[in-house]
Design brief:
Blueprint: H1 15-20, H2 26-29, H3 33-47, H4 53-71, H5 77-91, H6 95-108, H7 110-128
Helix pairs in contact: 3-4, 3-5, 3-7, 4-7, 5-6, 6-7
Length: 133
C-alpha cells in the first residue's frame, strides 16, 4: 500500500467530499490518540507499584510506539476504533472483552499492531491481576 504513489489529481472542489466518504461516523474520524493513550498510561501507572520495573518500562516503550504510529497516521480507522473500544472495556474492568478485542486486532491487523500490541496485552493482564481489580 505504501508504494502506490500520489492520488490522482482531480477538481479542487471534489477533495473535501472524497475525504469525508471513508469515515461515515464523525466520532470515529475524530478519535484522538490521547483518548486511547491516556487511559492506557493511567493503567500502566496503577501497575507500577506491584509490577516489575522492567515490565512496566517495556509496556511504556510499546505505548510510545503506538502513540507514534497514531500520530503519523499509520493506523487504519478500524484499528483506531477497536483500540478505543478496548480501552473502554479495560476501564470498565471487562477483562475478557478487552482480551477478545486484542485478539481480533492481532488476527485482523497483525502488520499494523504487532509492534505495540504485546504491550497492550501485557497491560491488560497486569491490570487484571492488580489487588483492587
Amino acid at each position: 500500500p505504501r508504494a502506490l504513489g500520489p492520488p490522482p489529481l482531480g477538481p479542487v472542489g471534489a477533495a473535501p467530499r472524497a475525504d469525508a466518504r471513508p469515515c461515515p461516523e464523525e466520532r470515529e474520524c475524530s478519535l484522538s490518540a490521547d483518548t486511547v493513550l491516556a487511559p492506557l498510561r493511567a493503567a500502566l501507572d496503577s501497575c507500577r507499584p506491584s509490577v516489575q520495573k522492567q515490565v512496566c518500562n517495556d509496556i511504556g516503550r510499546r505505548l510510545i510506539v503506538l502513540e507514534d504510529a497514531w500520530a503519523q497516521g499509520k493506523l487504519s480507522a478500524p484499528v483506531r476504533k477497536r483500540m478505543s473500544l478496548l480501552v473502554q472495556e479495560l476501564q470498565q474492568q471487562h477483562w475478557d472483552a478487552a482480551d477478545e478485542i486484542h485478539r481480533s486486532l492481532m488476527v485482523d491487523h497483525v502488520n499494523e499492531v504487532s509492534q505495540w500490541m504485546v504491550g497492550v496485552k501485557r497491560l491488560i493482564a497486569e491490570t487484571r491481576n492488580l489487588p483492587d481489580a
